[in-house]
Amino acid sequence: MISKYNPKAGIADFWHEFRRPNPYRWPILIASMCMTGTLIWLVGHEELRGPPARPEVTYISTFAEGRSEEEIIANIEANQARQDALRAEAERRAERQRELYRTLGRATGIDVDAMEAEIEAERAAEAASENDAAANAGDAAAGSVAPDGGAQ
Question: Any long-range contacts for 11-17 (C-beta under 8 Å, 24+ apart)?
Fold first, then answer.
């Protein structure tokens, strides 16, 4: 196996060709050495950057350590009451805005009742299609069985 990859024959062939008289022998050798040296110099001065250092994470907790279950439940209930109040206020504002638009529509001669009925029908159709899509996704996720007995 070593004889197959023996560099002795290659070196002998190179030396035989290099010793032949050729006027371009030395310029080609110098150009080859310059290109090789330049490549080695460029690779030697290449700047490699590793991955950045992992950041140091400091967790800030706004809750006191060692809270009891009662304190946690009371906090959750207070937050939920705040959220309910905010939702009720947002709904009140939205209803007030709808009422202003209804008044504006009636003042400009637009059939507001027909528009509201049309919008409500679109919302109902959209909700029905979302429910159908959710039901179909639930069936597919559950791996339901097709009527012929195979998996869908």
Answer: none
Residue found under tokens 């709904």: 91
Percent of the chain that is helix, strand, coil (3-state, to 5) = 70, 0, 30
- Asked if the model's pLDDT at residue 76 lies above 90, the reply is yes
Using the CB atoms, write b or e for 113-136: b if 16+ within 10 Å. eeeeeeeeeeeeeeeeeeeeeeee
- Bridge partners, residue 151, by sequence: 145
Domain ranges of the chain: 69-132
Q: What tokens does 141 get?
A: 């996720």
What are the pLDDT digits (tens) for 29-63? 899 999 999 999 988 887 778 888 899 988 877 77
Ramachandran angles phi, psi of 151, nearest 5°: -80, 145
Q: What are the structure tokens assigned to 67, written together?
A: 């809270």
Would you state the pLDDT for residue 35? 96
pTM score, two decimals?
0.41
